[in-house]
Amino acid sequence: MIFLKLGATSFGGPIAHLGYFRAEFVARRTWLDERAFADLAALCQFLPGPASSQVGIALGLLKGGLPGALLAWLGFTLPSALAMTAFGMAVKGLDAGANHMWLHGLKVVAVAVVAQALWGMGRSLCPDRARASMAVAAAIVASLIPGALAQIAVILAGGIIGRLWLVPQGSLPHSPMPFKLTKRFGIGALTLFFILLLLSPLAARESGLYVLQLFDAFFHAGALVFGGGHVVLPLLQAQLVPRGWLSNDAFLAGYGAAQAVPGPLFTISAYFGAASSQSPNGWVGALVALVAIFLPGFLLVIGVLPLWEEARRHPAFQSVALGVNASVVGLLLAAFYQPVWVNGILSAADFMLAVTGYLLLVFWSAPPWLVVILCAGAAGLGWS
Known about the structure:
The chain is mostly helical. It has one domain. It is 75% helix and 0% strand. The chain is built from 17 helices and no strands. Helix 6 packs antiparallel against helix 7, helix 7 packs antiparallel against helix 15 and helix 12 packs antiparallel against helix 13. The longest helix is centred in the N-terminal third of the chain and has 42 residues. It starts with a helix and ends with a helix. The model has no long low-confidence stretch (mean pLDDT 84).
């Protein structure tokens, strides 16, 4: 019930969600101390997947073992997943030829939100010339060679460059946590992660079944996303739009709408699964996409926790993470231009609306759901 309440009331990005978790589980319930929470948050920032959800999974694991981890994920995810599924089914049922200006307003919202995320991540993850240059190079490569494979290559190259040339400053906080998991169990979870990562494309290709193709697309997106929900945008766009499963307009409308619901941004996968033109049943598509995108992060958390005490101390591990994070900023920069800017800003009125949304988000600290309502409403009234 605690995580269900948080899932229904936690607005904002992953950093805001971590603030909610800290207030609830460190300050109020004292499940763990400040240093242990910082250690856990650091681990989840280094792993692929939705960082705030992975912290929630680990907290559930801490108190209730694997059943607790599953219930924590379900509670934190369910409210926004249901809302996004319903929205996806509604969008799928709309007349494609109709002029739904409020949907265009959601695309304009996406411009403001990605710009905010890009600025915040750039300041945090690329504070020096080396990492800023890596981010720009990653953006150029991702723009010139679109597609999921190029994005994966950019992430891998970032890790290699980080290992060779970047030196971490300081050390991570440390406090032991009593997770009752063995190293054998952790290795088993990681083995399952890599088996699914390698075999799901083969199963999807050989079977030709849409359900397996959908699972593969979202599993790979969840397995290769560093830095939070906003960075999943380019990977999912490369997986869904070229296949004709979703139009660019519907893709960006869903991204804008996701800002108005609480909980993790990864629940946008439920919208994509429900709104896909290939889904015979919206609820089934939403469930497959939702489970597939969260499963890698779940397996990585329960797999790495037993090994974390040793791995986190290795300087090579931290250097790789620095390079990967810089590349992630570059991918988000490329996505900001295409598809977000190109499809969202079609006129001077769109530009003014996006700038106003950015002003409200960054300088007035307006809640994202309010900015969504204002931009969609303005567009619906004929502003853009």
